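Suppose a colleague, Dr. K., hands you the sequence of a protein chain of 217 amino acids and asks what its three-dimensional shape might be. Before reaching for any lab equipment, you can write down a predicted structure in token form. Begin with the sequence itself:
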Amino acid sequence: MSKLQKFFLKVKQEGITGAFNFAYKKVSGLKKYEDEIDTLYYFLNHFVDITKIESAKGALRKLQLCDAVLLAIFDAICKKEGWTYWLSWGTLLGAVRHKGFVPWDDDTDIDMPRKDYDEARRKLSEIFASFGEDSVTCYIAGADRLGIGYKHLQTGVWCDIFPVDDVHYDDSIESLSSRIRKYKKFYRKSGKNLDVDELGKIREKIINSTYGGGGLI
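The predicted structure, expressed as tokens, is then:
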């Protein structure tokens, strides 16, 4: 396969932006660096018992404990508001594999169904404000993520919250991936100027999500 054919294949798989990012990494040498990192991960995954690595100590451990307190605060709010959430990414991996935090992790990650996420996005700042000036606040990072942390950000205590959409049962992976790329292209171009409800309706239309039930998360 020629380099040009490989490029057009990347365009088909990841869109024009993804293809150009790949080409840039290839030319700049970043792709080789990423391949070396992948090789290191392969070595660690196959020859190192990562569960035997000691838990964090010192400042990092204190940070993790503060992250746990922040998560407990959010858990209490979710119970009161009737919101659903679950651990994800490194936080879930740490809970299962290390029975706590991944030894080198410094924040927490959770997922929420889109309906609860949108409601949390609208209400969290006001809820946290009622706790006091030096308490927790909500930072809106975009339609794809929001974060909570203590108002003094230099502490580093942080939790990322990601939305999860419903999709119809008959969606193929290829079809769904294509629609997600189409939505991402729309969002980058003009979606940032829309409010949450408007964006939700367009996302539902483009991705064919059920946006609240009747499908598969």
